Amino acid sequence: TIEAIKDFVPDYIIMEVSSSCIIYERDIVAKKLKELFTNTIIITTGDIITHDIALFKSPFDISIFGEVESVILDICTGNKELSEINGIIYLENGEIIKNPDKELLSNEELGALPFPRWDLFPINKYVYYPQLNKKPVALIQSTRGCPYSCGYCSYPANQGIKWRFRSAKNIVDEIEHDIKFGFKSIFFRDPLFTLDRKRIE
Questions:
Q1: Alpha-carbon gap, residue 135 to 185, rounded angstroms
Q2: Which residues of the chain have pLDDT under 70?
Q3: Are 74 and 43 in contact (CB under 8 A)?
Q4: Per-residue three-class SS string for 73-99
Q5: pTM of the prediction?
Q6: 126 in helix, strand or coil?
């Protein structure tokens, strides 16, 4: 990762952090990145900081909780002060500030999100063996949110308990988009794929 970043000096580095590896991700990886790129803003995503805000420490600058898409644009365009951006946690004079939640994306907004720019990614490395034998494998999320809020699951923390869904046409359009890039398998990574069985049909 460091070698890849050395080719340019990014304004922002966005890191997904996990419950199992956050100490390593924060205290080793992010720290090293900050040492090399002192003016780069390090942004984290992932539910673990939402559950335990005390884990949000330097060298992290900002953490996004909830859905990322509209929040990241507010941060990176620089049109708003951090205090004006809902859905983030940030440091100010050594103090952790947690702003209010950002409103969840509607069905229409989910359907309006652009499809992935697969030409920017090493898709031939994407596998899901042994469940799917043909590679590369693309992930699609046709719904977001889960009304059950099981305590062990990160989906409600990241996507809320309101179940939202994309249209069948929008999903088929994405599948066709993926096939054009050479994907051979599709893995639906929904929190609760079968909540509405009629919709699945």
A1: 6
A2: none
A3: no
A4: HHHHHCCCCHHHCCCEEEEECCEEEEC
A5: 0.87
A6: coil
